Amino acid sequence: MLKRLYLKGRFFIAVGIITALFLFAFPFPSLFPIARLAFFLLILLSVFDIYALFRLKDPLFARRLLPERLSNGNANDISIYLENRYPFSIRLELIDELPFQFQKRDLLYRTSLRSAETKEIIYQLRPVKRGEYDFGALNLFASGRLGLVQRRFRFEQEETVKVYPSFLQMRRFELLAISNRLQEAGIKKVRRLGNSMEFEQVRNYVIGDDPRFINWKATARKGDIMLNAFQEERSQQVYSLIDKGRGMQMPFEGLSLMDYAINASLVLANTALLKGDKAGLVTFSNKMGNMVQAGKQRSHLNTILEVLYNQRTQYLESNYELLYATLRRKVTQRSLLVLFTNFESLSGMKRQLPYLKGLAKYHLLLTVFFENTELKEVLDSYPADTESIYLKTTAEKFAYEKRLIVKELNLHGIQALLTPPADLTINTINKYLEFKARSLL
């Protein structure tokens, strides 16, 4: 029992007051009976408080409710169910033993429960690394009406939860797509500029349609302008190529660039499947990683999710020659290749340019790399001294070189996307929809 008994601050305040009374009783003897009475009263009340808290065997119940898996980079809801079986109201302090990855040692919640009352406490956790997270026990500290002592309860709730790529972000985009509200997430509406040759139907002309596809015979017959409508091409292959080299280890807002790329790849795969296309995945660094051949079954998304879960950054330079050779051998149908990488310098990109040009010859290649958003504060600042001038000049050089990389890639017929990490998913999906609308595949 002693291991579960804790004295509260109210008890020590009472001890301090009684001690002061005893001290003042030396010059003022009339205070001695009051001090002695207060001392015995404190002992009596403390014993009563201890008895009330410890007389029942299981007066409290607590359970942590965890989802089956956590979503990387998102706020995940964790709930704790509490039940008070005491015949009186209690005040509670709750400490949850979180996985070490969160580095939180101050997760303390205070609440109160009436007799026979139940309550649910919900808090949020945002993991920034994929992997297994071990939750520990739930520690409750209950105090009664007097609040002099506390009883500790420990509920063994050890549980391991896996953190997967951001499936919450994927679901959000999926729900917006189903309800035709993608504009709320920043997805642009792109008017179809091209067409496939697969005829769908003859329908009424509306403003914005291409007048080249007016069906004049049907127009003369109906007395209204009629248009030949073509079905959007489907079953096209969309591959996400994820660079796992050392350049993708750079962190932004807690997440590495590779984790941003993994989250965007999952949303891209889901969007491609919703559009009727096939989604595939390739990971690489100094050697080839995993390859998931493009498929269109809904269960295919779970295969991609499981592969993305196990990816780890390598600390060597990526081998683009090996990537080119592997794709030429294994991806024979013209496909959209979305390469997530991070070129920090023009010279670094030019070393890989021959292999990128080779891929762009047989496929539609979109090279996605990242803006260094940490430089924005430096670029927007006013230099106050010589050192600040040097820093700003260097930052402008890096930012300018990133824009040069985009122009250099475009000159060689390679699509390029320079984006802040936070906007990666939205900008990638916009590019994919643009390619679909323009029938570039």
UniProtKB/TrEMBL annotation:
<dbReference type="InterPro" id="IPR002881">
    <property type="entry name" value="DUF58"/>
</dbReference>
<feature type="transmembrane region" description="Helical">
    <location>
        <begin position="34"/>
        <end position="54"/>
    </location>
</feature>
<feature type="transmembrane region" description="Helical">
    <location>
        <begin position="12"/>
        <end position="28"/>
    </location>
</feature>
<keyword id="KW-0472">Membrane</keyword>
<keyword id="KW-1133">Transmembrane helix</keyword>
<protein>
    <submittedName>
        <fullName>Uncharacterized protein (DUF58 family)</fullName>
    </submittedName>
</protein>
<dbReference type="Pfam" id="PF01882">
    <property type="entry name" value="DUF58"/>
</dbReference>
<feature type="domain" description="DUF58">
    <location>
        <begin position="201"/>
        <end position="353"/>
    </location>
</feature>
<keyword id="KW-0812">Transmembrane</keyword>
